[in-house]
């Protein structure tokens, strides 16, 4: 017998129970004829509500939404599968992360997630108690369905959980596994999921449907990409990446879609730069929409970081909703203003001018009058960045624009940025891209648009903060290709110590290219010394597996 399964891949706002409910209702209407409609993990509240689950009215508010879904289930012949937090009546943490199956106004099955991720950006053990190791099974339209929640099926890849919920289902005997998920996106993640789940399906000889959510919640973006995996053919169908979608698949031992049997593996692949582009655009759109910002403001230096930030913001929010401000000083190159002007004209973004030379002069004079000596070169460098930061916040206050800060991952790693200066802002959309990736994405942006929207002069110019005469980033930092290689290895790969690096055989050639042990030691020192800046920096849209923010929790006052 064939079951029709609707996969509802939706964009939830955290704790917006009414809004989330409205989206789910619309999906139910769209999934006419389905026997089973599957939503994602914690769909009523969105993932991850963090300590909002501890608010006294959280469960009561969620219950209203659940009651509304139960009422909804009376008006459809479909069985609904949803994710919700439920109270733990036993010992341990106060809640479970649960999957509920609704039929005709009743909860006919309740299952609690067994494997709670507590690593990288996940902290589920903070709030949830794991459920018992039991098989949650229900027969719908003649198919015996077994249910799991996200991490429950991630047991196979180097994790050492003592239990395997998929094994429990397989041993009990099911026709199909239904997995509800909140699987955050980073570059390489869709491929990782495909490989992992193709392996799970093959190992247990069981097909599986995987329903993810989509959209941005603060730093985290969900890419969707829900899929069906067949034990012999691998992943045979995938919903779009970075979009809401509701699609119905038939299943009778094989998967069917639009009258076709799905027996060919599909690829999750999207080129890295395009993946970054889509993730950042969606992340900014959702951040702005969910908070209520329509417009953003960005300081435009004529450099690559602000150019890319402007370009991505123009695509995400529309050029009319983006304001650029150029703030030339005595050290600004002529290109700083003319390249900004060309960029903004290409993008259709408004460019305002606010020179800072007079303000800098005023501050210098007042500094001397108040404190005696003239301010040092570094003090004046930072002063310029702070004056610019103040002007941008002034604009934000007055016109209600969200200020986007423009630091990339390379400079944030080593603290090459001024606190309360160019770090000012509400959100950073390129802060998880290394400088070399910023260049690559800028080039991709132009290719994608079929035009040189980001002027080549900006892409070609040597990076400079232009805070003193002739200043170049390379005066203070190793060349970016070298720096980025060291950073990638240290922050998101194997933790390098200089001596280890020297002795690792594979790295001997690379070691020379990276400037030797002294350079590495210096970079590692800079990373450690600038933790205090990252702690105060605006949230960064995460695009890589290991991002700054709660995915990398480091102390400040430590002996590194
Ligand atoms: N552990 C700690 N905990 C708390 N606070 C700590 C601290 N260590 C220093 N501090 C404080 O931080 C201050 C130093 O930090 P900060 O004022 O930011 O300044 P700082 O890191 O000294 O200098 C900023 C550097 O970034 C460069 N820059 C600036 C702007 C843009 C760019 C670019 O290319 O994008 C580059 C600039 O040329 C300069 O070399 C100290 O005066 C001290 O008050
Ligand atoms: N002359 C300027 N006018 C407007 N904003 C500026 C100016 N100089 C710096 N900024 C702001 O401060 C940020 C840091 O700029 P800076 O030039 O110091 O470093 P950067 O990391 O090389 O950035 P970019 O590549 O955008 O120049 C810029 O991205 C921009 O938002
Ligand atoms: N919500 C979850 O359990 C997510 C964890 C899972 N390993 C993922 O990243 O997809």
Automatic annotation (TrEMBL):
Transmembrane segments: none annotated. Keywords: ATP-binding, Ligase, NAD, Nucleotide-binding. InterPro entries: C-N_Hydrolase (IPR003010), C-N_Hydrolase_sf (IPR036526), Gln-dep_NAD_synthase (IPR014445), NAD/GMP_synthase (IPR022310), NAD_synthase (IPR003694), Rossmann-like_a/b/a_fold (IPR014729). It catalyses: deamido-NAD(+) + L-glutamine + ATP + H2O = L-glutamate + AMP + diphosphate + NAD(+) + H(+). Coiled coil: none annotated. It comes from the Bacteria. ATP binds at residues 299-306, 406. Residues 3-253 form the CN hydrolase domain. Its EC number is 6.3.5.1. The active site is at 41 (proton acceptor), 113 (for glutaminase activity), 150 (nucleophile). PROSITE patterns: CN_HYDROLASE. L-glutamine binds at residues 119, 183, 189. Pathway: Cofactor biosynthesis; NAD(+) biosynthesis; NAD(+) from deamido-NAD(+) (L-Gln route): step 1/1. It is an enzyme of class 6 (ligase). Pfam families: CN_hydrolase, NAD_synthase. Deamido-NAD(+) binds at residues 382, 411, 533. PANTHER family: GLUTAMINE-DEPENDENT NAD(+) SYNTHETASE, NH 3 /GLUTAMINE-DEPENDENT NAD + SYNTHETASE. Catalyzes the ATP-dependent amidation of deamido-NAD to form NAD. Uses L-glutamine as a nitrogen source. Belongs to the NAD synthetase family. In the C-terminal section; belongs to the NAD synthetase family. This is Glutamine-dependent NAD(+) synthetase.
């Amino acid at each position: 017998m064939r079951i029709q399964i609707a996969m509802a891949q939706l964009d939830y706002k955290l704790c917006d129970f009414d809004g989330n409910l409205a989206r789910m209702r619309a999906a139910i209407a769209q999934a006419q004829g389905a026997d089973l409609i599957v939503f994602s993990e914690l769909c009523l509240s969105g993932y991850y509500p963090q300590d909002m689950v501890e608010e006294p009215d959280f469960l009561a508010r969620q219950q209203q939404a659940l009651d509304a879904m139960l009422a909804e289930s009376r008006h459809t012949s479909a069985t609904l599968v949803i994710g919700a937090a439920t109270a733990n009546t036993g010992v341990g943490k106060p809640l479970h992360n649960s999957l509920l199956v609704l039929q005709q106004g009743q909860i006919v099955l309740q299952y609690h997630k067994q494997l709670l991720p507590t690593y990288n950006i996940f902290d589920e053990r903070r709030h949830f108690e794991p459920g018992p190791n039991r098989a949650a099974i229900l027969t719908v339209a003649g198919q015996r369905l077994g249910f799991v929640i996200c991490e429950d099926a991630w047991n196979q890849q180097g994790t050492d959980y003592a239990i395997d919920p998929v094994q429990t289902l397989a041993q009990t005997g099911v026709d199909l596994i239904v997995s509800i998920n909140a699987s955050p996106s980073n570059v390489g993640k869709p491929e990782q999921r495909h490989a992992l789940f193709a392996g799970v399906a093959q190992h247990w000889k069981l097909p599986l449907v995987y329903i993810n959510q989509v959209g941005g919640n603060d730093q985290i973006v969900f890419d969707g990409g829900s899929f069906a995996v067949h034990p012999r053919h691998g992943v045979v169908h995938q919903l779009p990446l970075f979009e809401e979608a509701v699609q119905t698949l038939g299943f009778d031992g094989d998967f069917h879609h639009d009258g076709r049997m799905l027996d060919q593996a599909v690829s999750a692949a999207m080129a890295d730069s395009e993946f970054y582009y889509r993730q950042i655009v969606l992340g900014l759109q959702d951040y702005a929409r969910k908070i209520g910002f329509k417009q953003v403001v960005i300081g435009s230096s004529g450099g690559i970081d602000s150019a890319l930030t402007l370009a991505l913001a123009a695509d995400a929010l529309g050029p009319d909703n983006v304001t650029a401000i150029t703030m030339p000083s005595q050290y600004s190159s002529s290109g700083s203003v003319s390249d900004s002007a060309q960029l903004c004209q290409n993008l259709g973004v408004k460019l305002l001018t606010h020179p800072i030379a007079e303000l800098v002069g005023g501050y210098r004079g007042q500094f001397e009058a108040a404190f005696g000596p003239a301010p040092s070169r570094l003090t004046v460098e930072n002063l310029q960045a702070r004056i610019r930061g103040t002007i941008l916040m002034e604009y934000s206050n007055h016109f209600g624009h969200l200020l986007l800060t423009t630091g990339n991952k390379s400079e944030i790693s080593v603290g090459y940025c001024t606190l309360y200066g160019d770090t000012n802002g509400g959100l950073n959309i390129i802060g998880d891209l290394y400088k070399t990736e910023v260049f690559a994405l800028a080039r991709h942006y132009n290719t994608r648009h079929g035009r040189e929207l980001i002027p080549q002069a900006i892409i070609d110019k040597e990076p400079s903060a232009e805070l003193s005469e002739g200043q170049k980033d390379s005066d203070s930092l190793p060349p970016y290709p070298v720096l980025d290689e060291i950073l990638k290895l240290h922050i998101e790969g194997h933790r390098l110590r200089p001596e280890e690096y020297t002795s690792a055989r594979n790295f001997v050639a690379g070691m020379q290219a990276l400037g030797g042990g002294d350079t590495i030691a210096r970079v590692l020192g800079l990373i450690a010394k600038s933790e205090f800046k990252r702690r105060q920096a605006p949230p960064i849209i995460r695009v890589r597996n290991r991002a700054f923010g709660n995915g990398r929790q480091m102390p400040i006052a430590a002996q590194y």
